[in-house]
C-alpha cells in the first residue's frame, strides 16, 4: 500500500472500524469524554449492530446476561436477562441514536488497507465506499471489528457432502426463506451456536439431532433475573442496573475461579446439574462429560434449560460420534450408525480474522501480527496510534470493551494535554517470553493462533481476563508507562 496524501478526501482525529457493540461503545466514549475530537465509524455492511445484525439463525441470543453484556453507561431495561438478538440490536441502535452517533456512522465503507507515516504522523486509510476507492487520513485507528470473518464461517471438509440430496447451511449464512417444518434436522457441533439452534428448531422440525465429536460443558441459566427485575423496580433503572451488574460480575468471577481452582469438583457439580435436567437413564457421561477441564473452553449457557427440556420431551437428541461421510439421505458415522436428515446445519465455528483482515503497514513495512506483542490487551508493539477492542473469553465481552474505551480516551487526553501526536508501545526486553494472545482452548482460536499477536509474561504485556485487575490497570492506574513512548 502506498500513500496518496494529495488525493485524500478527509482527515479525522480518530477512525473507528466497525459499527457493532464495540464500535458503538467507542464512539459514545469519544463523544462524551472528548467532544472536540473528530471521528467517524466505518462500517462495511449496510447496517449497524455487527454480530447481532449479521446472524439470523433460529433462536440467536446472548450467552451472557445483558446486565454485564450491556454498556455500563446505559441500563438494560428489558425483562429478559439472557436476551434474543432483536432485543440486543434494538438496545445497540438506541444507544447510537441517544448519543448522536448515527451521523458519525458511514455504511458501505470497507477498509482495505492502512499505512502509518512517521513523517506525517498519521494513518492513510484506503476505503471502498459503495465499491469505489477513496482515501482518508486520521491520527488514530480504533479497530472494533471483533476477531472473526463476517463473510465466511468455518466448515470442515465432509466426505461425500456433494452426494447429500438435502440442504446444508452454515448458521452464519442462514437463508431467510429456509423452512424446516416437518424436517429431520442434524446440527453438527456442540458449542454456543449449536445449543442455541437445537431447541429453537424443535418447535417445527420433525426431530433435531445434535451431532458432536466432543461434548461441551453446558449449564442452565434463568432467562429472567428476578433479583435484577426487583432491584430495577425498587431502586429505579440506573441504581438497580448498577447493583445487578456488580452482583453478576461477582457471580461470574466466583464461578470461573471455582472451576479453575477446583476442576474436579466443578466437573462433578456440572454433571450433577446436567443429570437432574436429563431423562432418567440418560447416558450423561457419553454426551455431557468433556475430556477437558471446565473453562479450558467457554462454558455454554442454555436459558431456562431449553436444550435439556427438548431432550426430555423427545424432540431433540444428542449423538457423540465422528462423521465417516455424507450419504444421499443423511450422515454415516464412524460407529456405523446412520443419521437420516433432510437438513444439516454445520454449526462448526468461526474463521478467526484479526482486525477484519485489514493489511497494516508502518513506514512502508507490512506488520506481521505474530511478530507483535499486545500492550494492555489493546495496542500492538511497534505500531503507533493504533488501538483495538477484544473482550473477555471467560466473561461478558463488553465488560472489557468499556474499560478499553475509557483507557483509550485517557491516552488521547494525555496526548492532547502534553502536545504529543504519536503514541507507540515498545517491549523493553526483547528476550521477554511470549505466548498466544488468546490463551484459550477453543478450536477456532487454535486454528488461527499463529496469525494473531502474542502476549508477554508480565504487565503491561499480559492479556488480562480478570475484570477487577483491568479496573485497576485501565481505569485507576496512570496511562503513562516506561514501555509506552510518546512523541
TrEMBL record:
Q: One Pfam match, by short name?
A: Thi4
Cofactor (UniProt): FAD
Which molecular function terms from Gene Ontology are attached? flavin adenine dinucleotide binding; N,N-dimethylaniline monooxygenase activity; NADP binding
Q: Which domain of life is it from?
A: Bacteria
Keywords on this record? Answer: FAD, Flavoprotein, Monooxygenase, NADP, Oxidoreductase
The UniProt entry, under PANTHER family, shows:
MONOOXYGENASE, PUTATIVE (AFU_ORTHOLOGUE AFUA_8G02570)-RELATED
**Family under the similarity heading:** Belongs to the FAD-binding monooxygenase family.
Stated name of the protein: Flavin-binding monooxygenase
Q: Which organism is it from?
A: Actinoplanes siamensis
Amino acid at each position: 500500500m502506498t500513500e496518496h496524501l494529495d488525493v485524500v478526501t478527509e482527515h479525522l482525529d480518530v477512525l473507528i472500524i466497525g459499527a457493532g457493540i464495540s464500535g458503538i461503545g467507542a464512539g459514545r466514549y469519544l463523544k462524551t469524554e472528548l467532544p472536540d475530537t473528530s471521528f467517524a465509524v466505518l462500517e462495511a455492511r449496510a447496517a449497524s449492530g455487527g454480530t447481532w445484525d449479521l446472524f439470523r439463525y433460529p433462536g440467536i441470543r446472548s450467552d451472557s446476561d445483558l446486565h454485564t453484556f450491556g454498556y455500563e453507561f446505559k441500563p438494560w431495561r428489558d425483562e429478559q436477562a439472557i436476551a434474543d438478538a432483536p432485543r440486543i440490536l434494538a438496545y445497540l441502535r438506541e444507544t447510537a441514536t441517544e448519543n448522536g452517533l448515527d451521523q458519525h456512522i458511514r455504511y458501505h465503507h470497507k477498509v482495505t488497507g492502512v499505512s502509518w507515516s512517521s513523517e506525517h504522523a498519521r494513518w492513510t486509510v484506503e476505503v471502498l465506499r459503495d465499491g469505489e476507492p477513496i482515501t482518508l487520513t486520521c491520527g488514530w485507528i480504533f479497530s472494533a471489528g471483533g476477531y472473526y470473518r463476517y463473510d465466511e464461517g468455518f466448515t470442515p471438509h465432509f466426505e461425500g457432502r456433494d452426494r447429500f440430496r438435502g440442504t446444508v447451511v452454515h448458521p452464519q449464512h442462514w437463508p431467510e426463506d429456509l423452512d424446516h417444518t416437518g424436517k429431520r434436522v442434524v446440527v453438527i457441533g456442540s458449542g454456543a451456536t449449536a445449543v442455541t439452534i437445537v431447541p429453537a428448531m424443535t418447535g417445527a422440525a420433525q426431530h433435531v439431532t445434535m451431532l458432536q465429536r466432543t461434548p461441551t460443558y453446558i449449564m442452565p441459566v434463568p432467562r429472567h433475573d428476578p433479583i435484577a427485575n426487583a432491584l430495577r423496580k425498587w431502586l429505579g433503572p440506573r441504581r438497580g442496573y448498577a447493583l445487578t451488574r456488580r452482583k453478576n460480575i461477582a457471580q461470574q468471577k466466583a464461578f470461573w475461579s471455582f472451576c479453575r481452582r477446583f476442576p474436579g469438583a466443578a466437573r462433578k457439580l456440572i454433571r450433577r446439574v446436567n443429570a437432574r435436567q436429563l431423562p432418567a437413564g440418560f447416558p450423561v457421561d457419553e454426551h455431557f462429560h468433556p475430556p477437558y477441564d471446565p473453562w479450558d473452553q467457554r462454558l455454554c449457557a442454555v436459558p431456562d434449560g431449553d436444550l435439556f427440556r427438548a431432550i426430555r420431551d423427545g424432540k431433540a437428541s444428542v449423538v457423540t460420534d465422528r462423521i465417516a461421510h455424507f450419504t444421499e439421505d443423511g450422515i454415516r458415522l464412524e460407529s456405523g450408525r446412520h443419521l437420516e436428515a433432510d437438513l444439516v446445519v454445520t454449526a462448526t465455528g468461526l474463521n478467526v480474522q484479526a482486525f477484519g483482515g485489514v493489511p497494516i503497514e508502518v513506514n512502508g513495512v507490512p506488520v506481521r501480527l505474530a511478530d507483535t506483542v499486545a500492550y494492555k490487551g489493546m495496542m500492538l508493539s511497534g505500531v503507533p496510534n493504533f488501538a483495538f477492542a477484544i473482550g473477555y473469553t471467560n466473561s461478558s465481552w463488553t465488560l472489557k470493551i468499556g474499560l478499553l474505551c475509557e483507557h483509550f480516551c485517557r491516552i488521547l487526553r494525555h496526548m492532547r494535554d502534553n502536545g504529543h501526536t504519536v503514541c507507540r508501545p515498545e517491549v523493553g526486553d526483547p528476550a521477554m517470553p511470549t505466548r498466544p494472545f488468546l490463551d484459550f482452548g477453543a478450536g477456532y482460536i487454535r486454528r488461527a493462533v499463529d496469525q494473531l499477536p502474542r502476549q508477554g509474561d508480565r504487565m503491561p504485556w499480559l492479556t488480562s481476563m480478570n475484570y477487577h485487575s483491568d479496573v485497576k490497570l485501565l481505569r485507576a492506574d496512570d496511562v503513562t508507562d516506561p514501555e509506552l513512548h510518546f512523541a
